[in-house]
Fold this protein.
Amino acid sequence: MQFRQQALAKLQSPEELDLPVRFARPQGWLALSVTVVVMAAASVWAMTGSVSSTVSASAILTHAEGSYVLQSPVAGQVTAVLAQEGERLAAGSPVLKVRTADGDTYVRAVSAGRLTELATTIGQIISTGANVAAVENVARASDPLYATVYVPAQNASSIPADAAVDLTVQTAPAQQYGVLRGRVKSVGRAAQTEAQISAFLGDSQLGEQFTKDGRPVAVLVSLDRSSGTESGYTWSSADGPPYKLTSMTLATASIRLADQRPVDWLLP
């Protein structure tokens, strides 16, 4: 009965057509305007803006030709060590003197380079083909350093040529000296095995370390040179470390990938 009375009262009331109709309050119009502006700005940014991304990977400072493992051509006892780690050797330079059943002989450097590791000591018995040293292939002291970055294979294809690279060097804390600058020189065509990496670096432990998460692709990075720093290379800080960099120094690389438009993420 109550609802009937309300309906009859409504029918008897005037239509009030002369009163203005309020579609929305000012606060509502303000919220709608802000939403439209934000959506328009987001659409413009998605079409014209860009987003950069990076890939991080382990790296090592080397010379471009890498290293080789020096093996003994004879079996016998080491009676003299004729070179020291860090010493520069000419091709054919004697490294070890070995006493064999046929007399004394020498283990010599195959090509010019820097002796980075000795794996034998005086008095040690070695067999034919034993690894006795590692020699870095570098002809001149002035030859520049490079960084070899071992990138996961699934990320290598996205690395553009000449991409910027920042290197956090193990012997130069980034908090104090900044990061080392470089550019991608080349990207390997195939993933490398532990044996390939060990042969290039002259160190089986490094080969194992760089392949512990799978076979990586080697990315060669040329370091930006600078005459104004002690190291001879460009850093994110003004001076960098007050000493020279040496090869076989470990680092962590951050490689900048090609910029992408946000809209590309939505398109197939």
Notes: The chain has a mean pLDDT of 83.
